[in-house]
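Hi there,

I know you've been waiting on this one. I reran it after we fixed the sequence typo, so this is the corrected version. Both the input and the resulting structure follow.
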Amino acid sequence: MMFDDFIKRGQVRRASEDKALTKSLLKNINLEFNFLSALEINEKSRATLMCNYYDILRTILEAIASVSGYKIYSHEAFTYFLKEIKNEEIISVKFDRFRKIRNSIRYYGQDVSVVEVIENIEEIRRMIDILIKKYLEGYDV
């Protein structure tokens, strides 16, 4: 699969840079991130927090895509966007792993340990910091 395949299938479209959308996404991300950061990761919260942190990461990618002139409708397409358009091979692999973990929790009822969630959230936070500094500097975050 290639990023162009997602364009051909209509799961990605080219668009004009949308600064208003990007700012709105970042404002919402900031609110959600602050809320989630205040929560304890425990047996009851682990799956929900894992999925919500993944959603923050995906929304960051949506903002980056918007700045880059793309509207992406497929979570899987973000992996190829990172790899082929942004040349972020390592981040693309990590994102795809988190996408699969999120999907296994949401759609297949797979369990995830507190330790795994803590490690994953730490990595997601590092990825978010890198992506914001690299691609969204100058936007209100």
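Quick highlight: The mean pLDDT is 95.

Best,
R. S.
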